[in-house]
Write a structure and sequence with these properties.
73 residues, mainly alpha
Length: 73
């Protein structure tokens, strides 16, 4: 699908939006890296907590799917 109706101004605005988004992401990554360097123990605790939350959610979903499969049998 081609976008033949876009004007040069619209394309420039779109590029500007993506450039701003890229700058924001780069800034967030830099801030995160600095925070991890300053507080490695806290960063490790946060990572461990996030990992536990994801593992818990995966376990819960697997149990729900198992229960669903058992109900269909």
């Amino acid at each position: 699908m081609t976008d033949e109706t876009s004007t040069p101004a619209a394309k420039a605005e779109e590029k500007s939006f993506f450039e701003r988004a890229q700058d924001a992401i780069e800034s967030a990554v830099e801030s995160t890296v600095e925070a991890v360097k300053e507080h490695p123990a806290a960063a490790a605790a946060i990572a461990a907590g996030a990992t536990a939350a994801v593992a818990g959610a995966a376990y819960g979903i697997s149990k729900l799917l198992d229960d669903d499969d058992d109900a269909k049998s």
